[in-house]
Amino acid sequence: MHYLLERVYQTNDLSKEEITYLLENLTQVDKEVLYNYALKTKQKYYGNKVYLRGLIEFSNICKQDCLYCGIRASNVKVKRYRLTPEEILACCDQAYELGYQTFVLQSGEDLWYTDEILVNLIQKIKKRYPEVAITLSIGERRVETYQNLFTCGADRFLMRHETASKELYETLHPTMRFEERRACLNALKGIGYQVGAGFMVGLPGQTFADLAEDLRYLMELRPDMIGIGPFIPHSETPLAKEKGGTIKDTLVMVAMARLLVPESLIPATTALGTLHPQGRELALKAGANVVMPIITPTSVRKQYALYENKICGDDHPEDCRYCIERRIQSAGFEVDLGRGDSRQFVACNS
C-alpha cells in the first residue's frame, strides 16, 4: 500500500485498478500518509494560499429532477425564489466591498434567465468590476449560450459530472443524459472557460470502482477546478432514507484528486462543514485550497437547500467572510482574496 501511495505522490498517476485497490484497503495510518502527500502537493503548486470566492445563489428554481437534490422540480414543499438582475448586482457590490475578486453565480436550471438577461448581467458586472473573475454554475445550456456568456465576460464554469458511472448517473438523473453532461463539459473547455467538474461521495449504489472511474475521468478532463462533496440525504427526495456519505471517505477523495490532478483548484465545501464542525479545515489539510463564503441574501438563503441543515444559514456575508478567514488562519493557511486562477490556466495563458 505504501508503494502505491508513494508512486501516486511521485508520478500523479495510477490505473483504475490500482486506485480501486488503494481505496478498498486504506488503513487509518495510510490515510494520514495520503493527506500528508496531498498537502505537500498542494503546497508545491499553490503554497499555503487558500482562495476565497463570493457565492451568490440567485435562484432555487430548477427544471431537473435529480433524485438527491432538495430543489428538484418535484419537491413541492420548497419555497421558490429568483433574484432579479438588480438584486444580483447588489450582491456583487457587497462581495466586492468585502474584498472578493471572484463572484460565483449559482442557480438551479432556471430558464427564466435567458441568454439576453445573463449577457446583460455579466456585461454590467464586468463594466463595474473589470478585474473580477465571474464563475457561472447554471447547469446545462446550449453551446451557443455558453459561447455568448464567455464572449461577454464570464471566466469560469462549474458543472460537476456527479458520477462517472453511466448507470448510476442515469438512475439518479431521470431527466438528464450522461452523454449530454460530458458533451457540455467538453464544449465549455473548447470555448476557453476555466472549467470545474466533480462528484459526490457516498451515493446509494456507488462502488470503489465507480470512485476510481471518477478520478480517472478527472485525469482525462484535466479541469481547472474539482468539487467533491459528500452525499447528504434530503427528507423531501426519493433518497431520504438512504445512508449518506462520510467525511472520512470524502477527505480521501479530495486528497486523491489533489495527487492525480495536482494543478486543480479544490474547494473545501460547505457540505463538509455541515457534516463536521472542522470539516472545511480538514479538507484544507487534505489538499483543498478554495473556500466559497455565501453572499446570498439571508432572506432567501435557507431556501437554497440542496441538502438539509446547511451551515451559515443566518450569517450575514460580512460574518461569513471574517469567520472563514479566522478559521483558515487557525488551520495554518493564508487567505488570498485575488482571482486565484488555476496553475494550468496561468501556464496556458502566459
Automatic annotation (TrEMBL):
Keywords: 4Fe-4S, Iron, Iron-sulfur, Metal-binding, S-adenosyl-L-methionine
InterPro entries: Aldolase_TIM (IPR013785), BATS_dom (IPR010722), Elp3/MiaA/NifB-like_rSAM (IPR006638), FeFe-hyd_HydE_rSAM (IPR024021), HydE/PylB-like (IPR034422), rSAM (IPR007197), rSAM_sf (IPR058240)
Names of required cofactors: [2Fe-2S] cluster; [4Fe-4S] cluster
Pfam families per the UniProt record, alphabetical: Radical_SAM (PF04055)
CDD domains for the chain: Radical_SAM
Any coiled-coil regions, as ranges: none
Keyword match S-adenosyl-L-methionine: yes
Claim: S-adenosyl-L-methionine is one of the keywords in the record: yes
Domain Radical SAM core: 48-269
Name of this chain's protein: [FeFe] hydrogenase H-cluster radical SAM maturase HydE
Organism: Desulfosporosinus nitroreducens
